[in-house]
Protein 1
Amino acid sequence: MSFRVGIAGVSGYTGIELVRILASHPGVAITWLGAGKAAGEPLGATWPGVDLGLPVGPVDAAAIAAACDLVFLALPHGVSAPVARDCLAAGVRVVDLGADFRLKDAAAYAQAYGAPHPVPELLAEAVYGLPEKHRDAIARARLVANPGCYPTATAIAALPLVEDGLVDWLVADCISGISGAGRSPGPRNLYCEVQESAGAYSPAGAHRHTPEIEQELGVPVTFTPHLAPLRRGMTATVSARLRPGHGLDTAALRARYAARYAGHPMVRVTDTPPASREVRGTALARVCPVVDTARGVVTVMSAIDNLGKGASAQAVHNMNLLLGLPEAQGLPTLPEYP
Amino acid sequence: MSFRVGIAGVSGYTGIELVRILASHPGVAITWLGAGKAAGEPLGATWPGVDLGLPVGPVDAAAIAAACDLVFLALPHGVSAPVARDCLAAGVRVVDLGADFRLKDAAAYAQAYGAPHPVPELLAEAVYGLPEKHRDAIARARLVANPGCYPTATAIAALPLVEDGLVDWLVADCISGISGAGRSPGPRNLYCEVQESAGAYSPAGAHRHTPEIEQELGVPVTFTPHLAPLRRGMTATVSARLRPGHGLDTAALRARYAARYAGHPMVRVTDTPPASREVRGTALARVCPVVDTARGVVTVMSAIDNLGKGASAQAVHNMNLLLGLPEAQGLPTLPEYP
Amino acid sequence: MSFRVGIAGVSGYTGIELVRILASHPGVAITWLGAGKAAGEPLGATWPGVDLGLPVGPVDAAAIAAACDLVFLALPHGVSAPVARDCLAAGVRVVDLGADFRLKDAAAYAQAYGAPHPVPELLAEAVYGLPEKHRDAIARARLVANPGCYPTATAIAALPLVEDGLVDWLVADCISGISGAGRSPGPRNLYCEVQESAGAYSPAGAHRHTPEIEQELGVPVTFTPHLAPLRRGMTATVSARLRPGHGLDTAALRARYAARYAGHPMVRVTDTPPASREVRGTALARVCPVVDTARGVVTVMSAIDNLGKGASAQAVHNMNLLLGLPEAQGLPTLPEYP
Amino acid sequence: MSFRVGIAGVSGYTGIELVRILASHPGVAITWLGAGKAAGEPLGATWPGVDLGLPVGPVDAAAIAAACDLVFLALPHGVSAPVARDCLAAGVRVVDLGADFRLKDAAAYAQAYGAPHPVPELLAEAVYGLPEKHRDAIARARLVANPGCYPTATAIAALPLVEDGLVDWLVADCISGISGAGRSPGPRNLYCEVQESAGAYSPAGAHRHTPEIEQELGVPVTFTPHLAPLRRGMTATVSARLRPGHGLDTAALRARYAARYAGHPMVRVTDTPPASREVRGTALARVCPVVDTARGVVTVMSAIDNLGKGASAQAVHNMNLLLGLPEAQGLPTLPEYP
């Protein structure tokens, strides 16, 4: 018998990626679909050729509760929190792909997102859904805040550094594909404005993912996101001065990373810098640490699919944990070449 | 009366970009073309639709001397140095777009390029062709070493920081278009291997541009290059902790940058992070410094065209200085939109 | 002394391409800029790094007449016709890049564009601005209707066939870059919807360019446009059965094409099928006819830049003719490699 | 119990796509991998992150026979035929993704491929693997010639027309992604040569797929292939004059197509022209016929993934038929959005 899962926000990029992964997941069945503006239209009108035999309804907690054991919320921030509250009240577990429950501090939320938190009473209960850090808590949770894409890529690269106290400040320069800008048209996702161009945006702590990254890493982070012309894919390059007396070279640090991520099936420690195509369409992160002994600096490079490990595939990973399914069940791990 | 200029290596990407810029330059005439394997073929066989009415000969100093006042060498490292020596001996000024004369230290060259320097006796005379740093020396030179693309983007971003002693170590994460990998086929320029992918390579000081960057900046630099799927374009994002007591905010630092680059016609200090398309096809660099006062960190973002300011357009800029032409003459400054 | 020219619609793709070409044109000076929604903002707000020292005003015939000898209208269809009328009345010559004056038949316009023609009394006077067909009339005109991109690519490929009565029906399959879809966001220009995809649209005479193509060629045309993921560039592939007894092989047909386009400086007859990059950024068309004698069929392939020969560069070509300037003056002919 | 299948040529694009599809196929197990130059290297050296726990050996019929019930040959033409012969002799069924057994006429092969056929005695036995035309014969075969990508896209579009005698000559203009040019570096797959460009090649019957298309359709075909900058994806646009007295409009023709493809699970007849992304990563073809009654012309547009229905997914479809598995088992049908 399968668990019944729903997807709210199926007309967006993370929504359709959830469909793709869940459709072949052996432990669950998609039983409900919802959307905002696209509600009422067949799924194939938004995504030609996709037909799950389900209507796309408005996002409504009662409808979700009638159809689902667990729901994924792929909704704008501010919108998902009340839906999450009502779903939980109706006994439905929630994986929220939006930003509403990622920051534990309501004041930090208000500053980053420009509005008071809609449901602050749930912040304490929500678990930050990075399995490589909070796996046990996720397994006991009712409400999981699925991490942002940049925080995921950066945390996978940096967690072993900060947990061992090797660094006290990080530079994280990340590159994202255009799907990260979402599907609402604007200067960041119009073809002729972004093709054949690359560039930074929101530097110096201005990006909303900055407090999220610092919350999980516990050290100050100089985070600069960049856009490049690919549909999906993300890299993080983390550099930092190593604490004096660290005694590490690349081989030793790589061994630490391998040990840290042993037993975490969605992380691969590599010998060479990863490219985003090596994880395209998958739930995987690839991570490669190197030590520059001459300069006393560490550089760690990670790659994820911003819609995979950076969003929907990680959400399914969290679902597996929440529902007590095998951790890696149904998670894509074969990159889409070429 | 025009100066006569030649291009050795016209079948490569920097060679044809030199053709494009020089063809409409009012102060010079292209009088000689040379290539390696493509010698003997008409230019239009390599670049359909391009015909300068000139044959493409083998690279030969005597032929260059007979036809040119100045020659651009767009040749592989190790190949250009002897040609430069012979051209200089014959009275032809040289702008070398390759790497042979960028590093002042022959030992550093041998380490970075894996072979002893072919003409070390010219290293002292060669001038590093970054006009924003060495303009006067370039104007007096016979031999200019045109900077690498990554060093150009990084130096424009970081020079004001290091000249003022504001920082003692830099992180420079750069993104390059695929043309930077040249035209010899391989895993870094095959369409299906690089499209829809981004990633770092040669981290931790392994890239040959690292010693070049450190030579010009005078502080240690943690430089990590990245490839992204665009034909041309480059960004540098430089982050560093500011010296305690610096007293700078973004407005003050921006004013310093504006003052530093006043009178340098190819640098534009901007209020917003630049994207590479904003300088596509031009000789320009755009640079945007920001101060994160909360974290005591500066981040400076620059954008160039790796074949423009990062190679051929900067080479023409150096030519203008060498020949006593108006500094900005014939340099493209209008970006190619859309 | 230069002619004074204005650009109405400078915030669009054809508008900024006009800026790029006219800025280095030796016979004219840009003296007026106008836009719709972007009026009042500096040009650099829309196109970073572009500053002509001119304000961007609302589109107003009186302002145009005060500043210009000739104006380019790069405005939506239906909007440009009244502006054109008022400019002509004030003595300003007009090159209209929109569709309002391309069809000679007001009823055909009404059917294709879904509204009665706003200024039908000017249709007889307007000259269709394909210099390879109407050069003399353009030179005597006050009002030129700049051709559509698909009609330009198709006509250059097919004119010699229909003028010689070699064919009585054509299939024209064309590929366009995304800039052809304009800058208003929608499913045809959102990055993630069009990247990594190709496809036809508006087949079987449904595209508005169909009557324009048939008007100029005089035979029925089965025209199918396709979109492919490039910013700019267009190809037309025209196939037709040759009239029995034609007696032509490829060499003979190529000679006819060469003769037909001799003296037309913006058309190059080639031996190999052209790719759109071979004319990128230029005012050129490349065209390659081949005869399949076994099947009695001709296939002619052409390539243009949809914003160059397909729009703005052809508009400047028409301007040269209108103003009595040398025909090829200021027209870019060097393709932008790589 | 699963069937045991092998892949010869796993370092190519169609080879790794076979891996992707077969790895999640419930009816078979991959038991052998082979390659040419890449033999001896781990699979992950060619395709980072891919590890099936199998060595990659040289292509050897004895090794194949020891490990496999069926083998896929993704090898250059001329190379696969002798391997196929030896595998068949050893009792292994063969799906050949190359061109060696597609043409039934050895003389036509010699003309198209420039060499005598290596194993002409097998031509009569080989079955052309287009399930929509030869399903029953495939199910009884030992050796299947998997169709070329262009012939697949064109045949799906045109079969109902020619089978009903509606047309006597076809124009087929096709667009292919770059992966169709294979992985050996050259001017057709170097990033900077093909990005931002589109164009035709090999017109007028010069492309090797022309005789294959005409063999399957039985009428003369004017076939012109085009390359566009996408990694994978293909469209065919087929236009033809309808036989006088046909009496068809779009609705009637669409009904015929729906009837023709009823029971063929990998073809979808659509109301709107398909884009290649709608079938990305799948075994599907989408096809849309329209009738232009005013001109008496039919235009049919199809889209496939050139590596999916155009190569590897169709090969697995053929495998299902050969092995008596459910026809659609394990075939991907969910397009990869975004």
Protein 2
Amino acid sequence: MTEDGFALPDATVAIVGLGLMGGSLALALRAKNVCRSILGVTRNPAALESALARGAIDAASADLSLASEADIIILATPVRTILDQIPHVGPIARQGAIVMDLGSTKRAIVQAMEALPPHVKPIGAHPMCGKETFGFDAAEPGLYRNATFVLTPLARTSASTLALAESLARAIGARPLVLDAARHDQMVALTSHLPFALASTLMTTVGEMAHADASVYRLAASGFRDTTRLAAGDATMMLDTLITNRENVSHAVRLCAHHLNELADLIAAGNEPELRSLLQSAAVQRRALKFEI
Amino acid sequence: MTEDGFALPDATVAIVGLGLMGGSLALALRAKNVCRSILGVTRNPAALESALARGAIDAASADLSLASEADIIILATPVRTILDQIPHVGPIARQGAIVMDLGSTKRAIVQAMEALPPHVKPIGAHPMCGKETFGFDAAEPGLYRNATFVLTPLARTSASTLALAESLARAIGARPLVLDAARHDQMVALTSHLPFALASTLMTTVGEMAHADASVYRLAASGFRDTTRLAAGDATMMLDTLITNRENVSHAVRLCAHHLNELADLIAAGNEPELRSLLQSAAVQRRALKFEI
């Protein structure tokens, strides 16, 4: 028992949104026997039925009021849906309930959480995992394994609330990392939103040629497959992500476009020494990275 | 027996360059028992020893003159090394030998092949497969399986030479596709060289931020991993590829940078209808693609 009035194994967790992230979280909490019970809130009847059928949740409702029974309420919807939901969570949440979210951008959400009533304990979160498929059918209990699980506490977030959020992250195999919300948003603009922008724009650019001659895809191999993979993701979720991080993302995309034009200039001019140095430097940096997910 | 004077099962094949592509070809020809014997030409003593030790080749030399015994000579070095080698192949090649290459760009190579003496039979080739590791140690007999194997015949290439090249491609599990060399170079600029340029530039862009704060990589997940994968490739090979296709590649990179700036404008302006339409269109196109490698 912590000062929050409950310990994780005794907690009832309500997950709002049972898509890839929320569904995988429910499956992971269940598989690892992390908490006492799991409630699911979704307006998607198919996801609700699947989650009950797979035993991921103990009870379900289309109505947020089900979360009034929870010690921990986790908002696992797209960012702007989270922003819409936050004002409705305070009135229904029990005394001392932790309110967490899994949104892909954090500054706007943490700011909205500041307005939550004093009887709830807010903290922002962003697990760095996902895949290009989505919805509960794509959910899997291992999604969070080895993933960095960013936590963005508010000024009002207590050490014990942070500790409980960290233990939840560790319990599902993830690695907690505490970050300032604004810094998080700057970083993911480069490591997550920019790669999506490149994948989508590559698909758009080649799609234009394919429109004239579809056989171009016969020359698309594993490199094209991997570089465009993110483009297949959920456009609605990405739209929320890009719009709620628009300054950082538009800056990152323009910076990358600028570097691309510099690269094109070197190629067009046949400037081999600089081209070799640039490509070699990127190769060395990429080979030095180790990915555990 | 064809009009070329030999059938594939009776042929001696010389592979010049025993890196990822040449080494994998040797292993595939051996595994599928495609030809009578396989000769390896490389100036890399380690690759030569490994290839002999793994039984990929029957004989090896650092000297191109070994290829004088071959019915089929396959140049599997970087593009500009191929361009350097072509003038030396004619004088040593036997009467009726097929001279093929595996270079990533085709226009310059096919042009150089035009100058080969009349007693040899040239044809360009480009198998659409690879990976970000390289050298003989990375070679594998299954590399060509299901890969599109582009063949770019010259005006002088006979139907029987083309048929023999196609049967070689099929014998190692690849799918032959006959294309004009110039058209090939336009297409791979988009499907292969542009993805590499994006991967490398993404690595450069994020690397700049990492220089100030290396913890940015803790926020790099599978999306960043896949989108940057190509950046780890062999810079020397890519340099040859980009330089010998410079007009097409610089055009493709600039076109993509232009589309990226358009995307950044939509994001910065919060133009949701156009942004949604753009991302959704790319997602639909990407999901429609099926990759068999």
